[in-house]
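pasting for the record
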Amino acid sequence: FVVLTRHPLATFSSYANSFFDGDYQTAMNFNPLLQRYVPAMAKFLRQKDVPFFHIKYEDLVSAPEAWMEKIYKYIGVPFERDTVNYGEKPRAAEASKGLGDPIGVKQHTRPSTASLNKWVEELSMDAVKRTLMEATIQALDPTDLETLGYPIAEIWTPMQVAAGKTFAPKKQKLDRYRLQRKAIIRLRGLAQRNAPFRKLLHTLRLGADVLLRE
């Protein structure tokens, strides 16, 4: 196993922006990501029965060649530098599709430090998001955070360093993915609030299951 951990607040920021159009509360309601995975990953990192290689996201993007070479050595295969410069060669259309971050991954051709403190700007400009994240971090076990490589005493250090700075809101390009994501979020919210609409969706799903049944 190769275990990649990332600053919890950066992790949640990426999750909320990639799949919930930056709506932290909706993202939290759908999946309390940190409450689920921080304890689970920490438990795995503390066990001794299964071997693993632990690397922090911040270290990987800061020195990708060095760390990728260590990972290759750990899994026992020759190091291929092209995996670091992953965007320099064109990929087949089917290879470019899949799960994961559909926004940031296309902005770079190799690991980048550009998004390390994006969450700092977000929380600095939005008190509601910051309050939600403060409550989330407070609810986590400090021992688990330290096991992942992010001691509770250092979690908010990037925010403290940025204290007093002003950040301008960044406009995000409205591409097809973002428009689809906005539509999905709105329709999901409508389905949760509106019983007749939810009933209609269940009826349509049943009809689709019948029509597609082989």
